[in-house]
Each structure stands twice: as C-alpha cells, then as structure tokens.
Design brief:
Radius of gyration: 22 Å
Number of helices: 6
Largest sheet: 7 strands, mixed
Number of domains: 2
Oligomer: single chain
C-alpha cells in the first residue's frame, strides 16, 4: 500500500501503477504471471510505440507535427526540473501519437537521453544512464503546442511497465494512456471501508483502435488522485501524486505476503528484535527521513511503499529498510537509527533483491520475498538465517543462499 506521496502536487494527480512479477503467484488465488506480459512482449510493445510509425488521427498533419516538435525543442510550458532531463539528449525527437481526446487535441513525443544523478538527484552515478524522455503536449486552438507532462523511462527496466501515459490537459483532468498490452482498470474514487481502511473501486479502462485510452475526470473527485493499474490485482489507496502519469510506481515492488491491499506492514528481520515502535510509527519515521532527503528538490515526485523491513539490533538501534519511488525509479533506502542511506536502484528480479550493509560493522540486512535464507563464510558450513529477511554477520566475505519452493537455490556473495 502506498502510504505517502510528497510533496503535494501543483497539478492534478494521475498515476499508472505497475506490479513486478517477483513470484509466479502473488495475490490470493491470482497467478500474476498469467496476466502480465512476458518480458520480451512488454519490451516489444514499448519499442513499437517508440520506434514505430506515429499513430492517431492527427499524426499525418504536417502542421501539427511541426508545432509539436517546435514546442518540445523550445521547452514551451516545460517545468525546469523536467527540462534538466534533456540536457544530455542523445538522439532526435520522434512524434509517437497525435489526435483528439475528450475535446482536447494533443500529441506524444519521445527523445533518448542520458540521465544520471546530475540530472535526477538521488540516482547513483554508476546506474546505466540510458533513458527515454516522453513528452505529452496539448495543442492550442491557434496551432501552437505546450508541454503538459514529462516522464522518463529507464531502458533496462521498460519490461516492467504495464502502460505509458501522461496528462494532456491537467487543468481539465484529461490524460492519455498508451497500451502495452496489459488489461487495465481505472479508479477515480477513494472510500473508507467499515474496517477503517481506505480503499478504491475500479472499472475497466477501454482502449481505442489506435492503442490509446482516455482518462477524463471530474474536478471534484480528482483531488484524491486517479489510479490506473493492471486488472490482475486490487488497487491500493494513493493519497496524492505528481502531475505526470507515472508508469513504474508499484504499490508493492516486492510482494512479501500476497496481501497487498491489507494495509501497511513491517516484515520482521530474523536476528533482530521486534521494533519498539508500532507499524505506523515506523512508517512515519521512515517517510520523514525520505522527506528530509528529497524535499529540497523542487517539485520532485516521490513515494514510500506500505511495507518495511524492521527490527532492533543488539545495541538497541532500530533498522528499517524500504523502497522509495523518486522521479519514476524505485530505489532501496535504509534508516539505521537516524542515519539515512540510499543503496541504489532496486532490482526486484535479482535472486537477493535486498542486501544492505549496515554502518559500523553491524551486519548485512538481506531479504528476498518468500525465500528461506542461509549464510556462511566462503567454504564454511551453512547456517540458517530465517525466512524472507535476516541480519547476517559482517565479519568478512559472506555467502547467502536464497531458497524458494520449486527453484534451484541461488547463492549470492557479499563483501
């Protein structure tokens, strides 16, 4: 469950959620792998939009084509933090789609760029810089265009996307979603259940013949944020989102229990005592640390997820490990006492997606959803570490075995 999105957006919030199939069966009785496109097909669908012929009823209009590319080149209406993403562009701008939705004429363009920590604060310098920057533009009655939304997608991770999209007219609440083949639903309302938990109702999002779908919302209900997500699993509540339609924002990037909609949770860390603070307190403290780190970035969109790895070390220090979506990229972060650390981009498909080295030789926090963990020094004897999450010693090189039902164990070396 996404529990906090900060800061409060200037434009109407709209998000497309994406769920990564870290396990074959993740929600009660639902085999996500069946609903999710095979990786090669998801990537092919993405490249079909990026590299294929322009789509939409206005794609062949030369005047529209020129106006859109001119506005993109001039950064007309583009926020300064979005323009920074294009300071290291590496190729030409391509028109992807141009047409009419909800009484608004708009267009979609894309341009490759190298994006690093210099352009997107929080990214490690060692991360592959290849990105595609996507722009969503509104066409004015006078024939000119203005940029309404900008997103950036990390090329090695496009297989994780369920859709592309952004606002064409944030003021009117009109957005465009580009299909990547996954059936989607849209939720426009937030409801408080009798149990006191916020939830959502959703309806199917129909796609048109050109592969686009329209999100057209009423201003009164838009203040809570529209959520678009795969029809294969329940949507979780989101309290406020960025002006762009993010397509890589997962309620649970790693699914620990199969109960994604049950509310916030803290996954216990074997080898650490239960945290003294209640779940909500841990989440608030963790979110506060994220805020203090990222709030200085103007208009940065970031979100913490509704789960944490949590525990107390032998010296009484509380450790929490979680993920944050910053600028469309999932990052692994930790809080050891009051010490905040960013551990780079999360790879949910890795055998051991979480391996966080704690400061002061306190150990490694290692975790893999629904896995049995063991550890040993190289060449030594295996010792049980626990289920899903554990603290293992940091006294030198260590190997961690990740065992899952029906799979060959994987061994990961840490040093």
């Amino acid at each position: 469950m996404l529990v906090r999105i900060l800061p409060v957006p200037r434009r109407r919030p709209l998000v497309v959620t994406a769920v990564v199939a870290a396990a074959a069966c993740v929600a009660a009785g639902l085999a996500l792998a069946v609903a999710h496109l095979p990786l090669v097909e998801a990537r092919a669908a993405y490249l079909g939009w990026r590299d294929g012929d322009p789509r939409g009823e206005l794609a062949g209009d030369r005047g529209v084509h020129d106006a859109v590319l001119r506005a993109w080149a001039d950064r007309t209406g583009m926020a300064s933090q979005d323009a920074v993403l294009l300071t290291r562009s590496t190729g030409p701008t391509r028109l992807v789609w141009a047409g009419r939705v909800g009484g608004v004429a708009g267009a979609v363009v894309t341009q490759p760029a190298h994006i690093t920590g210099r352009e997107m604060p929080g990214l490690d310098e060692g991360v592959d810089p290849r990105h595609d920057v996507w722009g969503y533009l509104r066409l004015r009655p006078d024939g000119t265009a203005t940029v309404a939304a900008v997103t950036a997608h990390h090329l090695p991770n496009v297989w994780r996307l369920h859709a592309l999209g952004g606002w064409l007219d944030p003021t009117a609440g009109i957005g465009l979603v580009l299909s990547l083949g996954t059936p989607l639903v849209v939720s426009e309302t937030v409801e408080l259940t009798p149990a006191g938990v916020y939830g959502r109702t959703a309806r199917p999002l129909p796609f048109r013949s050109d592969g686009t779908a329209v999100v057209d919302i009423d201003d009164a209900i838009g203040r809570y944020g529209v959520v678009v997500g795969p029809a294969s699993r329940p949507l979780t509540d989101i309290y406020g989102l960025s002006g762009s339609l993010e397509t890589d924002l997962a309620p649970l990037v790693l699914d620990w229990s199969g109960r994604a909609a049950d509310g916030p949770s803290v996954i216990p860390i074997t080898g650490a005592a239960p945290p003294a603070a209640p779940t909500e307190g841990l989440l608030d403290t963790f979110t506060g640390a994220v805020v203090s780190r990222l709030a200085r970035v103007p208009n940065m969109s970031y979100a913490t997820t509704g789960w944490l790895l949590g525990g107390r070390l032998a010296d009484g220090t509380t450790v929490t490990v979680g993920t944050v979506n910053a600028g469309g990229t999932h990052r692994l972060v930790s809080l050891t006492g009051t010490r905040y650390a960013d551990h780079g981009v999360l790879d949910p498909a890795a055998p051991l997606p979480i391996a966080v080295r704690l400061p002061g030789g306190r150990g490694w926090v290692v975790a893999a959803p629904r896995a049995t963990l063991r550890h040993r020094p190289p060449g030594g004897s295996w010792r049980p570490a626990g289920l899903q999450a554990a603290v293992v010693p940091d006294t030198g090189p260590v190997e961690v075995e990740v065992g899952r039902t029906g799979r060959r164990p994987a061994v990961v070396s840490l040093a």
